[in-house]
Every structure is written in structure tokens, then in C-alpha cells.
UniProtKB/TrEMBL annotation:
It holds the Pfam family adh_short. Gene3D superfamilies: NAD(P)-binding Rossmann-like Domain. InterPro entries: 3-OHbutyrate_DH, NAD(P)-bd_dom_sf, Sc_DH/Rdtase_CS, SDR, SDR_fam. It comes from Zemynaea arenosa. This is 3-hydroxybutyrate dehydrogenase. Belongs to the short-chain dehydrogenases/reductases (SDR) family.
Length: 264
């Protein structure tokens, strides 16, 4: 794959100001795609981030601060992408939040927020991106599910429900567009050292009174046989593969990159 494979294409990556989303945005930019960034953070840092990526890879970039729990803000983001770039050729639904609590103790507002951001936002971006993709008869929709889209874990009811839902949504979107040049697939990462996971490492280190490295190892040992974190760069490379001609017939898959987690 050369570095111009996606030149002339525009990728919108939700939740791309850090972690997995940023890794995927950088990987797509390295292939020549223009990038629409989305996420929260310090305005000056975000400005530096997206203009830095534009300069580094010689692509055009833009930023939307759309709150992915608000349909009207998602619509505004998609209008902005259409106005600046013509439309979204590659849609990466990555925005996500987490809360850990048993079902009977789970705060209702946390459940609603997780379903809205981790699942419903992908419906809104997809329904708005599809007309342009179908008109061009080319499009790539990549949904960042999770190994929790394939298996469950105690305490994560809303997250697991949302990610299983996202895998199901991926299959339906793929089937509805099976006779076109538009594909839809899901990536299901195991533990990645994102800010979300770092918080779980911090909590464990504090709870058990152990050093940070020991907390990381303990977290991995429970679920991920490789004993190593998946990296945003590895996930970015998989997203690039999904956008390549080699993946034209990869449709509706939930591809886990999880160090062996779901194989157990």
C-alpha cells in the first residue's frame, strides 16, 4: 500500500483527539486522506493537533467539537464536512465512554449517555454519510466496537450492550449495501492503553496499593493472553486495510484485535 492510496478521499473520525481515534486518523492521513477530527479537549491543543497532522502528511484537516450524544450537533458536523470536503468517503465511528457498575447500581443517566455516544451516534453519522457514499459508489464505514462487542464482562452492562449493538448495526449496514461499493466493518480491540483504560489501571493501582506497571500487568493477565496492549498504530493499520482494494469483499465482519482475549 503506497502513501497515496486514499488521496482525494476524506475521512471523518469521531473521538479522534486522543487514543485509538487519533491513531486511526494518523494512519489514514499517512495514506493521503483528508481528516475531519472530532472530540473534546483544550482548543489550542486540538488546533495544534489537526494543523500538525495536515502539515506532516500534506493533507487537509478540519475539526468539529460536536457532542456525539446530540443528534443536531452530529448533523451540523456532517454538514460542515460536506461543505469543506464535498462529503465523507470514510467514516470511522470511534467515540466512546465507559462506566463500571453492577446493573442494579448503574446510574440511569450513565446508561443513557453510554448508549447515546457508543451506539446511537454511529446510526446518525452513518445515515448521514451513506447518501454521498452511494452516489459515488465507494465508501468505507469502520465501527470501533470492542472485544466487548463479542463477549461480556461484569460491571460493564451499558458498554457491552452498546458494543454488541454496534456489531449488529455493522452487519445490517453491510448487508443493505452489499451490492454497492460501500462496505461496513467493525474492529473489536482488546485492551488498548487509552485514557479510558489508563483510568482503570490507576484505579486498580490505588485500590490494591501496587505500582502502575504491576497494575497494567494484572489487568492484562485477567483477559489478554498476549500480556501486551494493542496499540492505536496497529488498529490504524487494520482500518487502512479495510479501506484498501484488498478488502472490497470484507463486509460485515467483527474483526477482533485482542491478543487472544476472545479465543479463550
Amino acid at each position: 500500500m503506497n502513501s497515496t492510496m486514499l488521496s482525494g478521499k476524506t475521512a471523518l473520525v469521531t473521538g479522534s483527539t486522543s487514543g485509538i481515534g487519533l491513531g486511526i486518523a494518523r494512519a489514514l492521513a499517512a495514506q493521503g486522506a483528508n481528516i475531519v477530527f472530532n472530540g473534546f479537549g483544550d482548543a489550542a491543543q486540538i488546533e495544534q493537533l489537526h494543523t500538525g497532522v495536515a502539515k506532516e502528511f500534506g493533507v487537509r484537516t478540519a475539526y468539529s467539537g460536536a457532542d456525539m450524544s446530540k443528534p443536531e450537533q452530529i448533523e451540523e458536523m456532517m454538514r460542515m464536512a460536506a461543505a469543506q470536503f464535498g462529503g465523507v468517503d470514510i467514516l470511522v465511528n470511534n467515540a466512546g465512554i465507559q462506566h463500571v457498575s453492577n446493573v442494579e447500581d448503574f446510574p440511569v443517566e450513565k446508561w443513557d449517555a453510554i448508549i447515546a455516544i457508543n451506539l446511537t451516534s454511529a446510526f446518525h453519522t452513518t445515515r448521514l454519510a451513506l447518501p454521498w457514499m452511494k452516489q459515488k459508489n465507494w465508501g468505507r464505514i469502520v465501527n470501533l466496537a470492542s472485544v466487548h462487542g463479542l463477549v461480556g464482562s461484569a460491571g460493564k452492562s451499558a458498554y457491552v450492550a452498546a458494543k454488541h449493538g454496534l456489531v449488529g448495526f455493522t452487519k445490517v449496514t453491510a448487508l443493505e449495501n452489499a451490492h454497492s461499493g460501500v462496505t461496513c466493518n467493525a474492529i473489536c480491540p482488546g485492551w488498548v492503553l487509552t485514557p479510558l483504560v489508563q483510568k482503570q489501571v490507576d484505579d486498580r493501582a490505588a485500590r490494591d496499593g501496587i505500582p502502575m506497571e504491576a497494575a497494567k500487568k494484572a489487568l492484562l493477565a485477567e483477559k489478554q493472553p498476549s500480556g501486551e496492549f494493542v496499540t492505536p498504530e496497529e488498529l490504524g493499520a487494520l482500518a487502512v486495510f479495510f479501506c484498501s482494494p484488498a478488502a472490497d469483499q470484507v463486509r460485515g465482519v467483527a474483526w477482533n484485535m485482542d491478543g487472544g482475549w476472545a479465543a479463550q
